[in-house]
Design a protein that fits this description.
Helix content: 40-55%
CATH architecture: Orthogonal Bundle
Strand order of the largest sheet: 1-3-2
CATH class: Mainly Alpha
Strand content: 15-25%
Length: 96
């Protein structure tokens, strides 16, 4: 991946933040909200874009009789995010 081939999915600060949060494992909607300080609507929209692009899995279930949504990075999402970070690191090192 070079600077000109960075996927559009990484053009949003919140999508990058969500991917970063999910690198350490599955998170609930409530956890993503606390970690990103984003609004419910903005998180929903950005997660939907990540899901449609194949970067995030969404699981809905019930916990203590309450609906719960959990998110995790797909293998593809993790590989693409790591490639994105490595590309940025290479660009920075090349320009030092």
């Amino acid at each position: 991946m070079d600077i000109n081939s960075i996927p559009d999915i990484f053009q949003s600060k919140l999508r990058i933040a969500i991917a970063t949060c999910l690198l350490s494992g599955t998170k609930t909607f409530k956890e993503l909200k606390a970690l990103t300080s984003a609004s419910d609507g903005n998180i929903s929209v950005q997660v939907k874009k990540l899901k449609e692009a194949g970067y995030v899995n969404v699981e809905k279930d019930y916990f203590n009789n309450k609906p719960r949504t959990r998110y995790s990075l797909t293998t593809f999402g993790k590989e693409e995010f790591e490639s994105y970070v490595n590309t940025l690191e290479s660009i920075i090192r090349a320009n030092l």
